[in-house]
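Got a spare moment? Tell me how you read both lines of this record:
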Amino acid sequence: MMHAYFSDDQLRHHGKTFIVAGEKKPIPEVPERAEILSGAVERLGLDLHAPIDAGMDPILAIHDAQYLTFLQTIYPEWQAAGGSELVIPNIHPFDRNGPYPRHHAGKAGFHLGDTSCPVSPTTWHSAYASAQTAISATRHVRDGGANTAYALCRPPGHHASSNIAGGFCYLNNSAIAAQELRAKYDRVAILDVDLHHGNGTQHIFYDRSDVMTLSVHADPSDFYPFFWGHAEEIGEAAGIGFNKNYPIALGSGDDVFLGALDRAMAAIDEFNADAVVIALGLDASRDDPFGGLTVSPDGFARIGEKIGTLSCPTVLVQEGGYVSETLAENLYQFISAFCATSIKQQ
């Protein structure tokens, strides 16, 4: 039976508000979404295991030490300087090639890529616990002999680069999982099926040939993260494209999404991956508040069924998917179909 992992510490962070088109709006990445997803896990008959604490080394394998120090220390520094309730940047550098800022406002602008990643007193605790959840699921597969495991990660991670937070993401859980798998497997693929392009994951592995990154997402010409995720971004490793993007038009539903997924699956097969991380976003749902795509619950079952045909060890890492009437059902349908198909492949 599949093992699932989650820590209650992941519920401690709540960013509250962010700026959208100049307006302050509630952040949809709320603790409630993890509680809803955990209900779907229980309905599947799976126990949620508490992750072990593997320490900082697996996180440092992906993220800069300076960035991790920032996440742990910026809140008291911000408060001591008379800052607001949450750490939110009001200025960003033109580039990050100059000297590292000494001022708290400069540090916030350097490391927080947009307003959707405010830092509170509990942000580091939840982000750290989320990363440990991904690590435990991955080690269950890598070291425990399991073919698959599910990490209920919250906050999500695929928009976080090595030293920049963005899109509700602080630590890149899928990237951490992939690097953990590399300790055993020569060729690892990360397949991202979130509504939004996994720009942080792409950035981390863009010049590497041992980790292939693939992302099926709403066209970034019209949607967040806007600047990255186009088909022509193919990676820079050895002149060969180990980064694959499959942008699809806003409003696309099951068939279009599944067609792009077929192309991504073929690329994984051609890459001859030894292990795969699925960055499991559920926000492509027709009921998701972001409203970018229109995948149905049955569509998530078909996505799970296709991904379940992978013949190599596979770690499922939760990314987006926000509070809606079908959030739990979408996860239930995906994992049910994935497990049923995966068992047949063994």
The mean pLDDT is 95. The chain has one domain: 3-345. The beta strands are 3-5, 17-20, 23-26, 48-49, 148-151, 188-192, 211-218, 243-248, 275-280, 314-318. DSSP finds ten helices and ten strands in the chain.
